[in-house]
Amino acid sequence: MPRSRANARGEAVSAAPFVAAYRKLHRTGELADRARQAWARLADCDLCPRDCHVDRRAGVAGAVCRTGELAVVASAFPHFGEERCLVGRCGSGTIFFSWCNLRCQFCQNFDISQQGHGEPVTPEELAAMMLELQVRGCHNINFVTPSHVVPQILAAVLIAVEQGLRVPLVYNTGGYDALVALRLLDGAIDIYMPDMKYADEELARRYSKVRNYPAVNRAAVKEMHRQVGDLQFDQSGVAVRGVLVRHLVLPNRIAGTAEVMRFLAEEVSPRTYVNIMDQYRPCFHAEGLEAIDRRITAAEYAEAVQLAHAAGLRRIEGAG
To answer: pLDDT (tens digit, 9 = 90+) per residue, 140-155?
Structure first.
């Protein structure tokens, strides 16, 4: 049995050196197979739960993601505003993909997610971005809003690993992910970072224009945890593998915090690492929607943290 010791966070970690999951998958030839399978699915796209079945390889944009064969990137840079365990000392190497398969009426990045600001990139160009972020010392490559560009990511990772990519990959998603796409990513992603936005289907439809969000979201989070387990850290306290759930507290209990936390503790793992976020502010169309046309109160945030503890969760970022 490999020896372990405590890291800077006081949690036990393996003494064995970290090896990114995708490097193991590449050695067997499976990464190349997954990339080919994913790219083929673009011709009749079912890679997100929208199931629009358009031919993206022919340049037809997805019905909601509005993305064709090439991914669109808004920016790529070392990010110091992400979770502490991703940022470390040198930052998280974020790549912000344009467009989204959700239509959140309060999105703070609506110019990227809803208006598509960014430039199309080939897999070769995306791989070069990843390698540049690694050269700049980033602890990981953080794919932001990746659900609609899984084939493009796999194609780029295949290129980048052959040129020396070795840092963990983070799948930073709104949580509306298809199981078919997640299974293509099995063994390629080191850290899954899904949102859990809602517990109520009607509220999800009203505020993110999406059907069946809670059921899809919960199935996705369970699959992510099956693949990578609870969040693990290296000796310096930087995350290297596992699931980190984000939960944005919304006004008037719209996010369904109690139900979300019970699900995580009882159906995923009581050791699930959760970031309970307090930064909601009315953006985009939220100013015209009465229930979400304000910031949350200190009492609403404190209640959300208390509900997480009451459910049995203890690994909570943002709890003060």
So the answer is: 999 999 999 999 999 9
Paired with 247 in beta bridges are 276
Q: What does DSSP say about strands 119-121 and 169-173: parallel, antiparallel, or unpaired?
A: unpaired
133's torsion region: left (phi>0), alpha (psi -120 to 50) or beta?
alpha
Distance CA 314, CA 271 (A): 7
d(CA 159, CA 157): 5
Task: Give residues with Cβ within 8 angstroms of 136, minimum separation 6.
Answer: 78, 90, 91, 93
Determine, yes or no, domain membership for 226.
yes
What is the amino acid identity at position 13? V
230-285, pLDDT tens digit by residue?
A: 999 999 999 999 999 999 999 999 999 999 999 999 999 999 999 999 999 999 99
Distance (Å, rounded) from C-alpha 304 to C-alpha 259? 11
57 within some domain:
yes
Domain at 169, CATH number: 3.20.20.70
51-58 own/partner pairs: CB under 8 Å, 24+ apart = 51/178
Q: In whole angstroms, what is the distance from residue 219 CA to residue 201 CA?
A: 14
Terminal-residue alpha carbon distance, the chain:
36
CA distances from 305 to 46, 117, 239, 268, 277 (A): 36, 35, 22, 18, 10
pTM here?
0.96
As for how many domains the chain has, the answer is 1
307 found inside a domain: yes
What is the Cα–Cα distance from 55 to 48, expressed in whole angstroms?
14
- Strand ranges (E), 80-116: 92-97
Determine the structural domain holding residue 149 and report its residue range.
18-317
How large is the C-alpha radius of gyration of the chain?
19
Phi, psi of 171 (to 5 degrees): -105, 100
Quick check: 64 and 101 in contact, CB under 8 A?
yes
Does a structural domain hold residue 193? yes
